[in-house]
Design goal:
This protein is of the alpha/beta class and 207 residues long. The chain contains 7 helices and 6 strands, in the order E-H-E-H-E-H-E-H-E-H-E-H-H. It has a 6-stranded parallel β-sheet with strand order 3-2-1-4-5-6, with helices on both faces. The radius of gyration is 17 Å and the shape is globular.
Length: 207
C-alpha cells in the first residue's frame, strides 16, 4: 500500500493537519494516511501547554475516527527517547517492506531538512510530499526540490494544499481565554477540549 505519514505534536490537531492529509491522499492516490503524535520531539518543549500525551492522542483519534483511511500510529508516542524522522521511517521501512511511504511536510521543513538529525537517511526511505500553499512559493520550492534531488538522489514532489492560517498555538491561546475554537478543529475535538477544560490556566496542570 501507499502510506502517507503525518507527524507532529498535534497540540491540538486542527483542520489544517486534516486538510493536508486529505489533499495528499487524493493527489497522490494514497491508500492510508498515518497520523503520528510525537511523544518526545527533539525540537519542542513537550510540556509547554501542560497537556498530557494521552490527551493529544485522544484528540487525534477523535479527529480521524470517521475517516476510514486516516489511521493513528503510536510508534513515536510510545518511545521514551527523542523521536527522529530518520529513525521512524527506517523502522517503518523494515517492518512494512510491502508498503511505500510518503512523508508529508510543509515548505519550512523542506528548506530546513538539512539541519535535521541524520537527514541523509530520510531520502532512501520515502517519497517526500512538500506542501506548497500558494503560487508565490512555487519558484523557490521547485529550486529547493531540484537541489535536494540533485544532491541526495531524493524523490520529492510538490503537494498543492489550501492555505489555512490556523496554528495550534492560536487555538491554545483562544481556548485559554475561553474563546470559541469552532471551525478550527473538528467538533469532537472542540467538545473534548471544552469538557476537559484543556489549555485553561491552572486547570491542565491539575489533571
Amino acid at each position: 500500500m501507499k502510506i502517507g505519514i503525518m507527524g507532529g505534536t498535534f497540540d491540538p490537531i486542527h483542520i489544517g493537519h486534516l486538510l493536508l492529509g486529505q489533499f495528499a491522499f487524493e493527489n497522490y492516490s494514497l491508500d492510508e494516511i498515518w497520523f503520528l503524535p510525537n511523544g518526545n520531539p527533539p525540537h519542542k518543549i513537550t510540556d509547554e501547554s501542560g497537556i498530557s500525551l494521552a490527551d493529544r492522542i485522544e484528540m487525534v483519534k477523535l479527529a480521524t475516527s470517521d475517516i476510514s483511511y486516516f489511521k493513528v500510529s503510536l510508534h513515536e508516542a510510545t518511545t521514551r527517547t527523542h523521536s527522529y524522522t530518520y529513525s521512524t521511517l527506517a523502522d517503518f521501512k523494515e517492518r512494512y517492506p510491502e508498503h511505500q511511504f510518503y512523508f508529508i511536510l510543509g515548505a519550512d521543513s523542506l528548506f530546513s531538512i538539512e539541519g535535521w538529525k541524520n537527514y541523509e537517511s530520510i531520502f532512501p526511505c520515502c517519497t517526500i510530499l512538500a506542501a506548497m500553499r500558494d503560487d508565490k512559493d512555487a519558484k523557490s520550492m521547485r529550486e529547493q526540490i531540484r537541489y535536494l534531488i540533485g544532491k541526495y538522489n531524493a524523490d520529492i514532489r510538490l503537494l498543492r494544499a489550501p492555505l489555512v492560517e490556523i496554528s495550534s498555538t492560536t487555538i491554545r491561546r483562544r481556548a485559554e481565554q475561553g474563546l470559541s475554537i469552532r471551525y478550527m478543529v473538528p467538533d469532537a475535538v472542540s467538545e473534548y477540549i471544552e469538557e476537559h477544560r484543556l489549555y485553561r490556566k491552572g486547570v491542565s496542570e491539575e489533571q
